[in-house]
Amino acid sequence: MSRHCRDTVARLEPAERKRYLEVRTRPLVISNNISLMAEERKKRVVIVNEDEPKAGNYAYKFYDNTHPIRGDSEEIARMRRALRGLRGEEVTMVFKGQHIDSRNNKKRFTVRRTFVLNSYQDAFGPGSAYASAIHYIRDKHSDDQLNVMNFSIEEADSGDEDSEYDEE
Amino acid sequence: MTKSRAALALAPSYETVEPDRDAYVQPLQLRPLTRETKRFWSFHSAPTTVALPGNRFAKSLKSFTSHTTEPEFRELLREYAEHNVPRPSGYADVFHEKYTSPRVTWSINATLAPAMAGGWQDSLRAGRHVGVYRRYDMRSAYLWAATLGLPDTRTYQRSLSPWKNGNRDGVYRVKLLRVAPNAPFPFNSAHECLATNIEIETYNLAVAEVIDGVTWKNTVDTRSLMEAITAVSTWKQAGRSYWGRWAQMQRVMCHSENKKWSLPNITLNIPWAHMIVSRVKMRLWENSNNALHVFVDSVITPEILKTGSELGDWRLEKTYNNGVVIRGPGQYGDIDSEFLEKMSGTAYDSPLRRNTA
Which of A78, B248, B313, B323 would give a disulfide with B335, using CB separation of 3.0 to 4.6 Å? Predict the structure, then answer.
């Protein structure tokens, strides 16, 4: 724990201290090399289009919105919140979406990317996990409409492969 | 073509191909050139530009329907050259030079594009109609449609719920339970079409399924777009065709001796194109209660419409004092005249135009 955090924690009431540690605004709060993910034992799920979760958003529109330089500031802030506290962790991002062909046949896809999250750019933007995931789908279905519905951030997994399956 | 080409220093030849010069020729002259040089570009299977030896190009005169003589055409070239378009292919080229249309990702257009429909052309009540009828035309209809603002492409978001997005307008590809006979094309004949949330509400469309949709937060100011169109004397012609590239799914084909390939339309923007067309159609529909005939931006009606001189205002084109004959969409004329006044693609004195309906 950093000196700053230690001082802050020392100043807080016990109830507030507990909440502060739960929020973990700084990854250095984690001590003894215990992985935050391992500690939480749960995944974070982020809905891409909060107004209409089932509609999702166009995969490249979401890419544009989350672009670290020319993206939408509100969307970037939302993604940063989702990634908060994971710096230095090895994580798996699981992107879920669908691709629709010209005959309106829908197929869902799930793409997983495991990486060490050192910065926002590792998750979003050029050369990121998200870019890699949608390029993978685009290369397989270049004429289809690509939508992304949600993604989850999990503890680095055992290496499940990318998957695609028909929409039920 | 770049400015550094030597052929740009000389005026192009007109309806002939001369050494060291570019050429503007009629479509029928262009075809033999494609067989000679084998390097050309085509659109809808018709050659538009041919690469000539010596870094020169021959282009088609087909698009310049308002400048049919050499002096007129040379004056047009001089004017366009002042706007950095020395070798135009059409009237909208200066607009596209001055105004950069936003780039929209493929997915946004992918499902909407196949359902994109054009203007409303319909003979609502065919036959002979006795009485006083008037033909009105909307002044620069497509230009007026752009002045109302266009969707902000930066705020595009996918949506499948036209009824849910209270503060966001959108365009949706929908399947209708039944056609709406009193609504304009395509809602009066198609079961699957594009419709904005405003169209769904106004025409009371019975939506069975929403296949895809794009919403936007706000519209962008189109002053720069208007300035780009009105920069030249041919702004009226440009005003008819400026939005065509936003809707054009057809690809330009490149041909060389050994292969051919296509160029995608990077300015494809179906939501913008649909907004332009839908606004004109809605305005036409609002004024077509007792109309006999509608044709894109004109209406033949017994009613007296309010006329004006601004963009989008109605202009009285003709009054039929004794009556009017409507034979079909785009086929009409004065009840007293021997031939139909308008019949697309038919010579004025053709027997087909005889007023016998």
Answer: B323
Name the residue type at position B266.
Answer: I
Q: Which residue of B has its CA nearest to A147?
A: B107
B211 inside 8 A of chain A by CB: yes
The answer to whether B191 faces chain A, any CB pair under 8 Å, is no
Q: Which residues of chain B have pLDDT under 50?
A: 1-2, 357
**Rounded percentage of chain A residues whose pLDDT exceeds 90:** 50
Chain B nearest-CA residue for A60: B105
Q: Enter the DSSP assignment of B13.
A: E
The residue among B275, B111, B273 whose CA lies nearest residue B198 is: B275
For residue A16 the two structure tokens come to 């507030």
- Among residues B319, B320, B344, B346, the alpha carbon closest in space to that of B334 is found at B320
What domains lie within chain B, and their CATH numbers? 6-100+222-263 (no CATH), 114-219+270-353 (3.90.1600)
Sheet holding B40-43, edge to edge: B13-14, B23-25, B56-60, B46-52, B40-43, B252-255, B260-263
| Closest C-alpha to B318, from B353, B336, B283, B183 | B336
Please state, in angstroms and rounded to a whole number, the distance separating the CA atoms of residues A134 and B193. 29
pLDDT class of A26 with cuts at 50, 70, 90: very low
Residue B296, sorted as left (phi over 0), alpha (psi -120 to 50) or beta, turns out to be left
Contact A52 B106 (CB under 8 A): no
In whole angstroms, what is the distance from residue A98 CA to residue B57 CA?
Answer: 45
d(CA B282, CA B274): 12
- Taking residue A118's Cβ as centre, other Cβ atoms within 10 Å add up to 12
Contacts 24+ apart (CB under 8 A), B39-48: B39/B255, B39/B256, B39/B257, B40/B255, B41/B252, B41/B253, B41/B254, B41/B255, B42/B252, B42/B253, B42/B255, B43/B250, B43/B252, B43/B253, B44/B250, B45/B253, B48/B89, B48/B252
Q: Is B163 on the interface with A (CB under 8 A)?
A: no
Q: pLDDT tens, A36-62?
A: 554 555 678 999 999 899 999 999 999
Q: Could you give the residue ranges of the DSSP H alpha helices within chain A?
A: 3-11, 14-23, 36-40, 59-65, 73-83, 120-123, 129-140
What structural domains does chain A harbor? 1-33 (no CATH), 42-166 (3.30.1490)
